[in-house]
Design brief:
Elements: H1 3-16, H2 20-31, H3 36-57, H4 63-72
Helix pairs in contact: 1-2, 1-3, 2-3, 3-4
Length: about 80
């Protein structure tokens, strides 16, 4: 999945309001001074972890882990795992 596709997916999640945590995370990041475009890119990184796990291991989408990664933004220590 390309970066552009991940960003488009995050944008669609925001519009759809599902998962709820995506819109909440965007609002939190923007309200604390993060430019919207940068916040969306960070959120796409959190989504990429889930997509990668699905593609590499045939795992199911882990909504709980996705939410946790969104909660941790802007800290992205989980990228090192």
């Amino acid at each position: 999945m390309t970066e552009e596709t991940l960003i488009e997916t995050v944008e669609n999640q925001i519009v759809d309001g599902e998962p709820k945590k995506v819109k909440e995370t965007l609002m939190r990041l923007v309200m604390t001074g993060t430019p919207r475009e940068e916040a969306i890119q960070w959120m796409a990184c959190a989504l990429a972890i889930e997509v990668s796990d699905i593609m590499k291991h045939g795992a199911s989408f882990n909504a709980k882990r996705y939410d946790q990664h969104l909660d941790e933004l802007p800290n992205m220590d989980w990228l090192e795992d």
